[in-house]
Amino acid sequence: MKLYFSPGACSLSPHIVLREAGLKFDLEQVDLKAKKTKSGEDFWKVNPKGYVPSLKLDDGSVLTEGPAIVQYIADQKPETKLAPAPGSKERYKLQEWLNFISTELHKGFSPLFSPDTPDAYKPIVIDKLVKRFTYIDSALAGKQFVMGDNFTPADAYLFTICQWASHMKIPLDTLGNLKAWRERVAARPAVKAALQAEAEARKAA
Predict the structure, then answer these.
(1) Torsion of Cα atoms, 85 then 89 then 95 then 97, to 10°
(2) How, if at all, do strands 26-31 and 2-5 pair?
(3) What is the pTM of this model?
(4) What angle do the packed helices 176-186 and 153-167 form, to 10 degrees?
(5) Are 128 and 111 a contacting pair, CB within 8 Å?
(6) What sign does the dihedral 181-176-163-84 (CA atoms) show?
(7) Helix/strand/coil (H, E, C) string of the chain?
(8) In this structure, are residues 24 and 2 in contact, taking their beta carbons and an 8 Å threshold?
(9) Residue 109 · residue 129 · CB < 8 Å
(10) What percentage of the chain has pLDDT greater than the value 90?
(11) pLDDT tens string 108-130
(12) 172, 179 in Cβ contact below 8 A?
């Protein structure tokens, strides 16, 4: 498998899950402005949507959209229990979390990344995001991870978005459950390895 990624982008989520699953994979860095990969591929031909993550499977087909990719990865190694069994109630809870993170957090950051967003609108965006993070903080009470005792793709995705929150200096320090959860996730070997690999890729770009 090959993961097309951009350092610090939402592709960090499947990058973490690939390492958590212990799967063999290649990384292909993408210049999202030029739509070119580091090896010279036209990224539009890899993913006509033009954004990461994209996962090229061993049969040459390409899977896109982060929530779908991380579930696919988890299902390749069911013994890791990264994701609940397909069809189980817990699996639908995972999908619920992935959808919430995707629509209410991930896309909620879009105005902050756009140079066209008026400065006067940004505090409104940040306030809405803080409310969403506050909800997550309450949902994490008494839990090790988003789904309970087991690390899942929802944790990888949420951790990625929290990285953005730090970069954008969104005030989350008062959210104790979220802060403790983030420290637990950051300490995981797979997460450390993914962050290190992406930091090195950024330096080499």
Answers:
(1) -120
(2) parallel
(3) 0.97
(4) 110
(5) no
(6) positive
(7) CEEEECCCCCCHHHHHHHHHHCCCCEEEEEECCCCEECCCCEHHHHCCCCCCCEEECCCCCEEECHHHHHHHHHHHCHHHCCCCCCCCHHHHHHHHHHHHHHHHHHHHHHHHHCCCCCHHHHHHHHHHHHHHHHHHHHHCCCCCECCECCCCHHHHHHHHHHHHHHHCCCCCCCCHHHHHHHHHHHCCHHHHHHHHHHHHHHHHC
(8) no
(9) yes
(10) 98
(11) 999 999 999 999 999 999 999 99
(12) yes
The count of C-alpha atoms lying within 13 angstroms of the C-alpha of 150, restricted to the half-sphere facing its C-beta, is: 14
Domain annotation for the chain: domains and CATH numbers: 2-79+190-204 (3.40.30.10), 83-188 (1.20.1050.10)
Quickly tell me which residue has 């789904």 as its tokens.
147
Tell me if 35 sits within 8 A of 54, measured CB to CB: no
